[in-house]
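Field log, afternoon session.

UNIT: design team B
ACTIVITY: writing a sequence onto a fixed backbone
BACKBONE:
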């Protein structure tokens, strides 16, 4: 059901959506690592949330809409995995145009949110664990909110967080050793 202008439900949805949009877009950008894909994902999540707003229980809008966003992302990811082409761009001698790093506004925005090293380390964390780490450590969501957003039990959230953080710690430690910030054998573990 879509709302008519002047409808209190529509106005409430707009208010709630405006409040969480920066977090929603930030999460979409971290998941997709592409500004255009993040915009598409946010737009689709917002439309789906708007259409389902009459079924929202009223408790935690941010967790509810993050769940919609993450489900959309996971479904897209799974769909791409199923229909992934058998050959790569290199096999077809295709060249993908890429702007210079200084000309990429999404790069500047993302770098402001998460350092390049952390971004690269996060990319190496498996999807379920990365999502839990991002929702907790970047978005500041509680275990219960993450459980609601990802539709898994709180115990699973704790497990995914622990494993995701351990992988991230290993990856960042490796970077620190390779960059000379840390000597081999002086890890924090």
């Amino acid at each position: 059901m879509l709302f008519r202008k002047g409808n209190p439900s529509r106005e409430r949805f707009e208010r709630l959506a405006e409040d969480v949009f920066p977090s929603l877009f930030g999460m979409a950008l971290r998941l997709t690592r592409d500004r255009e894909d993040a915009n598409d994902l946010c737009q689709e999540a917002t439309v789906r949330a708007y259409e389902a707003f009459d079924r929202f229980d009223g408790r935690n809008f941010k967790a509810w809409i993050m769940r919609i966003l993450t489900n959309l992302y996971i479904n897209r990811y799974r769909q791409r995995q199923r229909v992934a082409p058998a050959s790569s761009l290199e096999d077809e001698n295709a060249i993908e145009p890429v702007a210079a790093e200084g000309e990429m506004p999404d790069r500047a925005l993302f770098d402001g949110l998460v350092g390049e090293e952390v971004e690269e380390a996060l990319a190496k964390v498996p999807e379920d664990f990365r999502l839990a780490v991002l929702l907790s450590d970047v978005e500041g969501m509680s275990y219960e909110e993450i459980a609601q957003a990802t539709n898994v039990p709180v115990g699973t959230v704790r497990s995914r967080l622990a494993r995701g953080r351990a992988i991230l710690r290993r990856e960042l430690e490796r970077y620190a050793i390779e960059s000379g910030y840390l000597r081999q054998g002086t890890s924090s573990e």
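LOG NOTE: The domain at 115-189 is CATH 1.10.10.10 (Arc Repressor Mutant, subunit A).
NEXT ACTIVITY: expression trials, pending approval
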